[in-house]
Structure formats: C-alpha cells, structure tokens
Amino acid sequence: MKERKKLNRMQRREERAGYGFLFLSLTGTTVFIVMPIVMSMILGFTEWNPMKGLAGLEFVGLENFRDMAGDQRVWAALRNNLVYSLSYVPLTIAIALAMAGLLNKFVFCKVPIRMMTFMPYISSLVSVATVWMVLLYPDNGPVNSILSHVFRIADPPKWFISSRWALKGIIMMSVWHDVGYYCIILLANMQGLSQEVYESAAVDGANAIQTFFRITVPMLSSSLFFCITLATINSFKIFDQVNIITEGGPGFSTTVLVQSIYYYAFKEYRIGYGAAVAILLFLVIFVFSTVLQKLEERFT
Questions:
Q1: How does pLDDT run across 34-50, given as a tens digit for each residue?
Q2: Residue 59's beta-bridge partner residues?
C-alpha cells in the first residue's frame, strides 16, 4: 500500500515537472498562434479602420463575405492561387522525386550534390527573387538572350512585366527554390527502404524504370502524400516572391490571396475585410488538406 502511494506521488511529481517544462511553450503558442487565429476569426465579421482606434470597430455580420462575392481582386487571387497550386505542386514533387531517385543511385560526390540541391531553399527569398528578376529581364536578360540568339525566338516572353507570363515566371522561380527541400525528404525515405525487395525484383528481371515506378514509388506513398500536402499548403501561402517582384500585377495577373490580405489590411486599412479574406484562405486550405488526407487513407 505504501509503495503504491509512493509510486502515485512520484507520478504526480513527474506530471507536474512535465507541465512545468511545457508551460512556456504552451504560453507562447497560445499568445502568438491561438489568440491571433481567434481574433482573426472575430475580426472577419467586423469593419475596423485601426487609424480610428477601437472606436472604429463595428460588427457587420456577413457583409464582408457578401462584398467578396463581387470583388474582382479576390476572385482573381483565388483563380491565380488555384493555377499556381495546380502547376507548382505536381512540377515540384515530380522533379523532387526524379532528383531523389538519381541521388539515391549516384555514387560519387553525394554530399556536395545534396548540399547544392538544398542550398536554394535556405537562401533568402529576397535575394532569390532579385536574381530571377535579372535572369528573366525582358530586354537583355540571360534567359531571353539565349532564347533570341540560340533558339532564334523573335519575340521572347516579357516575363514579369507581361500579364500572360508573370505568373509562369513566379511558378518557375518557386519550383527552383523549393524542389531541393522535398528532394531531401524523399531521398531520406528512399534510403530507408528495404533492399530485399529490390534484390527480389532484380532476380525477377525488373529493369531500373520498372523498379522505380512499381516498387520505389508505391513504397514512398506516405512520404509522397506528406510532401504533396505540405507543398499544397505552402502554395496557398505564397506571398514574398509576388510582393517583391510584381506586387500582384500587371493588373491582377499575379495577385494571390495572401497578397490580397496584405493589400486590404495594411494598405487600405480595412482590417475586418482583410480578416474575412484570411478566413476564405483558411477554408480553401482546409478543404484541400481534407481531400488529400482522404486520398492518403485510401491509397496508402
């Protein structure tokens, strides 16, 4: 009986110690993540100009969401986000998977090549965006010079100053910037796969392509869905490169949802309307994440 009481006291002491270690982390999460999310949800149903202080805070119900139905900027942003996501995610994951497969079989200089693959992801987006603006400069940029003089294209794309090509240029830059991150994740999982399966496939006469698509890819299904989900969420959070390179233009051709939130909240000082757009973004991400989760449960 005494031993049981002593054990219970030790367990309670350990629990208190555990909660003590978690206290600062939980406090930070509550103050800097949970509370801003709750406040954003509340502000989405209000109209507030912060320049007027709390006196300018007014509850308007669903009026912000009704205004969004006729807002050309928001509809363009949603369309651009969908185009961006449906282009960026497949391209990034496909290239990352191919690179991971090659690096997994590559014998020499594995460590330097992996470092070079990952370097763009840890580079500053401001620096990366500046470099890509120079590369895709429409008149004398290196890319257009190659297209003009090597491939004899008379009218190369205008890239970031053209409403037709601006979003494509941003997609290219984003894929180049992020592909190394997903490549390293997939490569780490590839190296943990059972070699016995590959040996059995080699005995059965399977070639490298058959082995990759019929063994490696199915065995990586969980990791692939993780990368696809992460890339999809990140694709809807795109902001830095758009704001640095085009600021949403020309016109609304590169406007995205996060950039619209920034525009309404911090340029027009319509905090309530910006929060309503943020709620729309949350719902879009929630729907895509739920669909991907259901697909993962079905195929893995």
A1: 998 899 899 999 998 88
A2: 46
